Amino acid sequence: MSAPIPVPEPSPDDDYDGAAFQPIYTAQVTVSGGASAHGRATGRARSRDGALDLELRAPRELGGDAAGPNPEQLFATAAAACLHGTLALLARRHALDPVPITVDASVAVGRDPADGGYLLQTELLVKWPGADSATAARLLAKAAELCPYVKMLCHGAPATIRLAP
After folding, report:
1. From its phi and psi, is residue 39 left (phi > 0), alpha (psi between -120 and 50) or beta?
2. How far, in Å, CA of 163 to CA of 97, rounded?
3. 88: nearest Cα among 100, 75, 74
4. How far is the C-alpha of 163 from the C-alpha of 165, rounded, in Å?
5. For residue 95, how many other CB atoms are within 10 A of its CB?
6. How much is the pTM?
7. Measured between alpha carbons, how far is 96 from 135 in angstroms, rounded to an integer?
8. What is the pLDDT of residues 80-95, one digit of tens each?
9. Residue 65: which pLDDT band, with cuts at 50, 70 and 90?
10. What 3-state class would DSSP assign to 71?
11. What is 70-155's CATH number, 3.30.300.20, 3.40.640.10, 3.60.110.10, 1.20.1250.20?
12. How many Å apart are CA 7 and CA 66, to the nearest integer?
């Protein structure tokens, strides 16, 4: 491994210490077209900046053809990537090699026994071969405190849903 990259200790207080949420980046994606089965969108997802442009398809288990990614796969990707990035940042900060770190994400959609609707359950499994287990566990706990996706999964996240005029 080359010399560790100097990275400041990530902290919620580093960039902002005010009382209100201050966005740093906002992703904007539009999903349109396609059919729907079991409440599952098919069609096209496009980001405003053009970096994302793909066809969404329902999985076979929900009556689809599985010919493209589905929302659960995209969510699993986002959650795993965010936790991976946060843990890699902490690893570098502690002069540890982040290259062997992997994060497996499983996102299951199923029926919600509370209301009969639908619910997601997520599992993130971190593998860090060669790392001291106590150190890895300590850094993973810190990463879970800092990662916005893990925070959202564990504590919920504010959401606004409205109809355009």
Report:
1. left
2. 47
3. 100
4. 6
5. 10
6. 0.83
7. 10
8. 999 999 999 999 999 9
9. confident
10. helix
11. 3.30.300.20
12. 41
